[in-house]
Amino acid sequence: MSGTFVGMPAFPEAARAAVADERLRGNLKHATHTIRAKRAAAVAEVSDWAELREAGRRIKDHTLRHLDHYLLRLEESVTAAGGTVHWAADAAEANRIVTGLVKATGESEVVKVKSMATQEIGLNEALEAEGIRAYETDLAELIVQLGHDRPSHILVPAIHRNRGEIRDVFRSEMKEWGRPAPEGLTDSPAELAEAARLHLREKFLRAKVGISGANFMVAETGTLVVVESEGNGRMCLTLPETLISVVGIEKTIPTWRDLEVFLQTLPRSSTAERMNPYTSLWTGTTDGDGPRAFHLVLLDNGRTDTLADDVGRQALRCIRCSACLNVCPVYERAGGHAYGSVYPGPIGAILSPQLRGTASEIDASLPYASSLCGACYEVCPVAIDIPEVLVHLRERVAQGGPATRAGNKVVLRPAKGHAAERAAMRATRWAFGRPGVLRTGQRLAARTRWLHPRTLPGPGRAWSATRDLPPVPAEPFRDWWERTNGGRDDGAAPQDREETK
Amino acid sequence: MRVALFLTCVNDTLYPDTGRAVVRLLTRLGVDVDFPRGQTCCGQAHYNTGYRHEAEPLARRFAEVFGGYEAIVTPSGSCGAMVRELYPRLGERARAEGRGDGLATALAPVVPRTYELTEFLVDVLGVTDVGAHYPHTVTYHPTCHGLRGLGLGDRPLRLLRAVKGLDLRELPGAEECCGFGGTFALKNPDVSAAMGADKVRSAESTGAEVLCAADNSCLMHLGGTMARLRTGLRPVHIAEILASTEEEPPA
Angle at CA B151, nearest 5°, toward B150 and B157? Predict the structure, then answer.
């Protein structure tokens, strides 16, 4: 499994294959529509949802504005509780820290509870290079790992797979990674779950090192929180002797009390549950209970740079609920892989180009992977104005401009391939600044309308490949208005009526 | 009451029938309509494609052209949302970038006076029955910017329900985007076409003859898709339905 997605083609190209894949589209449509309806119902049950959403937005914004303060507070609390805090500026540093910590235990296997941060930095590959095998224990992550696949969704990484495909992956791959799938495994959910349970139980009982992510880190108490549905996470968090948590710095919240808001909004937004089945909280180490050593790796990897951007920083409010994916019509058709990142969908389209920069083809194309329909903003439980950030990043891609990379203020050059568009935008703005020019253009188009091709050249080809062009009318409105004195003299010229028929 | 018609560049150039329908409808309701000749384009394509500074002079022009009117009416949810939702941001941005309060000040009076057509009918004129007659089966697609940008709610549906002879069919998945999205249709053609095809199939499943919306840009995309998919559906702007009477059916 690749956590880094290097060398991905641009979004439109990656999406083309997904759009043409009937089975994939079917799986995605079924899954997103089901959860979409459930989420709406779960949210509608809460009378103060708007207030909760606003509270979540405010807590996150406040924390981000004073992140330096709260991170130091967090370090203090974690250390006081018997944990060790490590700071990682980028993926390489984080991987080096974690690999070193695992090697120091003398172990060559680790169990992992779903952590997007470790996928973001490609930790599994880094561990493998050092001879350490990492076992994913979240059911969906397990399916992705066994299938040599990549996650396709934030919450349901294997959303693109149906039951039959999962059975096939279990049958052929489980034996390579430990306990094989039971003989005659069918695609019934209960049998698949049991096969995964048996396979994973072996790993849980053997592992001496666990690696986790966290949904929240409470600065006040040094407590980390994982919210999950299966209980596999709790196994990873309590059974191993050493626990290493790799968490993005933006997951900090100031106080224990702030959790109250997110423990309401997160499950309803993500799984459409009133409350998730397992909420695990751990604070440092405790004698005779849980891991004997606890390490917290605080990951920056582009987050401070994102924080420096006054429009884009709101992406760091994200609590990874995936409601925006489930409601996004583009995600529904393109699937998660097309986004070329561990963060797919609308949030990925604004998060990845900020964390990684816009230099690569895929990152430069992500801000355009949206019709700006606004459904993502509407469902976001922390009110991230995703369309606004998309437009902001489009500006950065198309025209370059100031940004912060690795802590330095830089001026980005425009991405390649936008020169013609830039010229067109300037030209149309010039023409629209002069009504006379617009009218001349309209008249010219009207007079030559019989000569217009049925298909368009250049970028317009994409339009005429699947859609007919609208015919140009014989007379633009403004000419009609003038000729008829605003319709007072004569509703429509006879010759015009005839021609538009 | 004297109002300015902000027709939008797309309607002016490609859909003059919609403009004539708005004039006919508002005149019938006793409104004195003017079409300020200086109007051109709201700059939405520029803004949304990432060229906000190109949209700025167009916003300034809008403020100049429409400054003296009591109300500005547009038959486009999308361009209406540009004015109401995004123009204030252009003003704020100019201020934040040290270019002064000029733009924000110029826009301040026109922004709240800009109404999408159905909003103007229901909220300002206070009518839902506009005396229209349209004997067809119709399904309504609430376009994204009308729905979420302007919050039109059920205003268009209330207007349509009051039309004599009209058989309104509920559109499944109505709130989903049709896939037009301005330059999105060109930049992500495969996804856009798939979204359009799904929307058209969904409209077809209602058994309607007409797919109605308050935005010709979305209807252009859907109409082009309908023609290619050879459905029996026709795209019609809501203004043309509301302007239609027994004596004067649509052109």
Answer: 115
What's the pLDDT tens digit per position in A266-303? 999 999 999 999 999 999 999 999 999 999 999 999 99
Radius of gyration of chain A (CA): 27
Cβ of B50 within 8 Å of Cβ of A394? The answer is yes
pLDDT of residue B125: 98
Q: Smallest CA–CA separation between B56 and chain A, in Å?
A: 9
**What confidence score (pLDDT) does residue A5 get?**
66
Q: Report the residue from A374, A431, A473 with minimal CB separation from B16.
A: A473
**How much is the pLDDT for A114?**
77
Question: Does residue A490 surpass a pLDDT of 70?
Answer: no
Provide the residue type at A6 as one letter: V
Q: Would you call B189 and A12 a contact, using CB atoms and an 8 Å cutoff?
A: yes
Averaged pLDDT for residues B174-191: 95
**Looking at this protein, which amino acid is placed at residue B10?**
V
d(CA B148, CA B159): 19
Q: What span, in angstroms and rounded, lies between the C-alpha atoms of B98 and A75?
A: 39
**Strand-pair partners of A111:** A135, A210
Determine how many CB atoms are found less than 10 A away from the CB of residue A169: 22
pLDDT per position as a tens digit, B56-102: 999 999 999 999 999 999 999 999 999 999 999 999 999 999 999 99
The CA distance from B5 to B3, in Å, is 6
Residue of B11, B48, B190, B247 to mutate when probing chain A, most A C-beta within 10 A: B190
What average pLDDT does the structure give for chain B? Answer: 96
pTM metric for this prediction: 0.94
Q: Which helix (H) or strand (E) holds A278?
A: strand A278-283
pLDDT by residue (tens digit) across A123-180? 999 999 999 999 999 999 999 999 999 889 988 888 888 899 999 999 999 999 999 9
